[in-house]
Amino acid sequence: MLKVTDATKRRTALGQGLDALIPLSDPAETNSSDKSVRQVPIDSLRPNPLQPRQRFAEESLEDLSRSIKEMGVIQPLIVRSKAGLYEIVAGERRWRAATMAGFSAIPVIVRQLSDAESLEIALIENLQRENLNPVDTAEAYDTLIRKFSYTHEALAKRVGKDRSNITNYLRLLKLPEPIKEDLRGDKLSMGHARTLLAVEHVPTQLSLHGKVIRKRLSVRDLERIVQNHKNKQSRSRKLNQQDRETASLEQGLSRHFSTKVVIRNKIDGSGRLEIHFHSGEALGSILEAIGYNEDNS
Questions:
Q1: Which of 92, 120, 125, 139 is catalytic?
Q2: Active site (annotated) includes residue 92
Q3: Among 70, 110, 167, 228, which residue carries the largest CB count within 10 Å?
């Protein structure tokens, strides 16, 4: 029996999503001129400014360029007309690779698409073909939400993900820029980033991030360090609270005895109470205040 893995399910969901956004298989949906393949000059194409992928791995492009040089561009790009040129909706890697291969023309399918549809298709196409880095994915989701009023739930359904997945990616945008930069460059994993998000203090996040890079710490290593850090913070907060309570009690006792009172606590809960006096008369006043009577001792 063929085992259906989570990855298979994701690919299936994304495949359905892309087909829904680019319904090339159903001729009844659009007229023939809208989806017919045409060859256009390669320099008449422009990248989509909303392209989710901000970086294109040079080695990967070179491999694709060699393949295109030998086999040609097998799958047309999806484009839309804009300002007398063609804006790439899906297939920017193929366009870049074909340019590297020295092609002067490239096959395209021209579609009438809104900005929202263009971004959706670019996002899903990238997720299908070559995983976006986590930050580019998060920024693409954020753009859909801010510019096109998607809810987390609606966006999750549209791209074939769980709602929690969308939320987890969007949280990455709260990280400092140096951490996001290393996420883009694959120096940090999504697991590292999510662990760093558990630390609220930005300088501490950056310090831990530097330690991960220098020592090549695993996610599990980082989780242990973060947990130890949080435990220390908890103990520190507890000690600070105890210090505040002790200081308040010292002030109250000092007023009561009209002299300096010091409370010295120990870790095990025991301690010492010091009541200072500077004369026999002052000592007598203290003894009287605590109800000490020499006759009854």
A1: 92
A2: yes
A3: 110
